[in-house]
Write the C-alpha cells for this entry.
Amino acid sequence: MSSSTPPLPVRPATVADAEALAALVHSAYRSEESRSGWTTEADLVGGQRADAAMVRHVVGLADNVVLAAFSEDGEPFACCHLERRETSAYLGMFAVRPGLQGRGVGRAMLGAAERYAARTWGATTLEITVLNHRPELMAWYERCGFTATGERHEFPYGDQRFGEPRRPDLALLGMTRPVAPGGGPAERDAAGAATRDAAGAATR
C-alpha cells in the first residue's frame, strides 16, 4: 500500500504481550464482556478462544506475526495474527475490545494487517475463516471486500485449545479478498481518527 501512515500504530507482538493479547481475544469473543459488542460467539462456543501459550507459540514461528495496537497505558485494544501462505496471508485471532467496536477500529486494524502482508511478504490476497451461524460477521467482511470461497472446514471438535462447542454443526467458512495496492488520503484520515479515538477511549 502506498500511504506512509499506517491505519493504526501497530507493532509486532512479543512473548511479553501474550497474556494481555489472550485476554483481549477472549474478551472479544467468548467472555460476558463480549456480549456488549457484536463479535461475540459465546452462545456457540465456550471456553478459551486463545491462551497465552498459543500466542507465544505463533509469535515465535517463522512467516508468522501477531500485530497489535496499544492504548496510551500500554494495554492492547486490537490485534490479529498473520500467517504467510505462498502469495497470500491468512488472518486470524482478529479482535477489538468490545467497548471500542463500531468505531472503525476493526477496519483500521484490517488495513494495518493488509499493509504488513503486502510490504513484508508481497501478499496479493488475504484469507480468513468465519464461524458459520455468524451471518452478521460474514456480512461485515463482505462489506470490507471479502468474498466467500466455498471452502468449508470442520470445527476442531475435541480439541480443548479451541474451546467447547455448544452445538454439533459448527464449521469454518473460507473467505478471501485481494490486497489493495494502496490506500487513499480519505482512508488514512478516517483511520487516523479511529486511532486517536480508540487510543484515548481505551485509557478511560
